[in-house]
Here is the input.
Amino acid sequence: MNEPIRLDGRVALVTGAGRGLGRAHALELAARGAKVLVNDLGCGLFGDGEDPSVAEAVVSEIETAGGEAASNALAIEKPENAEAIVEHAVERFGRLDIVVNNAGFLRRRPFADHTPEMVDDILAVHVKGSYFISQAAFAVMEQQRYGRFIFTASPGGTRGNPWVTAYGAAKAGIIGLAQCVALAGEPHNITANVISPFAATRMGDAMETKSPQEEIGEHAELLADVLDPRHASAAVIYLASEGCALNHTILTVGGGRVALSAMIIGDGWQMPDGALLTPEAVRDHLPEVLDLSKGTNPTSSDQEGSAFLKPAIKAAMAGHESENRSS
Ligand SMILES: NC(=O)c1ccc[n+]([C@@H]2O[C@H](COP(=O)([O-])OP(=O)(O)OC[C@H]3O[C@@H](n4cnc5c(N)ncnc54)[C@H](O)[C@@H]3O)[C@@H](O)[C@H]2O)c1
Here is the structure.
């Protein structure tokens, strides 16, 4: 248990690894012994432009520290690019064990001001980018019978933020994707987990989130330490390690703190005797409907369906029996 986590012999791909969180993940993966493909388009905060030197600079940092890495500047959201990025990792390093889906950009503006193009761009980079990279990598991992996916969600997607509607939708979409990949990977020793980070990066700053500033008050100089992206990288390293048995989880991480974030379903309220649910019953039983004290966190749609519908089937059977008795 006291052994440090090592990733020697492992090959990792980190998308958007030229800056911010991705850069911190790539540096730590390499420091722990993994060979890293540093992918980054080198675009602006809003997805504009490109600059291959952004990924190259991180490769230099890794090499200077004695690690092994290669750079790739393709945009992740095109399926042919995603294929090429995964091929690059495999051709260069011989396998692919770890994929950190991290690249992305932001649009922060009122709901009404999101144009269809902005919505397309945001959904493309986050959802399609993570999708196509994972699909290409999955084929390699399936053959290896080993793989570790780490997806990047956001509190904007798990909990909502009125200024980032497209981004929030994309980040929640990534969770759905990760949950499906987690189940598809189970028979092949492939896991998929999600981090939902808080970090001081150009994107974190552009979010203009009030909460940390309000909490920290006059100790603003502490914010850079509290929101150091390396806190999030620690969760990434653990989720990327062979010894990590977690699958299908979401970890919120930041400021030296890490916690399970879950979509809990309550025990709910059941209409008796198989009768048709009415709007009035929903209204009149709201306390039971909203009660999370017996909440669970199902690990697949099948599991939720079985647990949720069991009482409904029992109620329907009870209704059917009493009908039979009275007829
Ligand atoms: N910083 C936070 O507090 C925070 C919170 C929640 C989620 N996130 C998520 O973490 C991830 C990293 O964000 P960050 O804060 O480090 O931002 P960042 O802007 O510092 O870094 C993102 C990197 O992704 C690259 N990138 C963008 N589009 C790309 C594309 N199409 N192909 C390849 N590379 C591309 C950019 O060039 C950039 O270097 C993002 O998915 C973001 O949504 C960040």
Observations:
- Residues 42 and 53 are 7 Å apart (CA to CA).
- Residues 116-144 form the longest helix (29 residues).
- The mean pLDDT is 95.
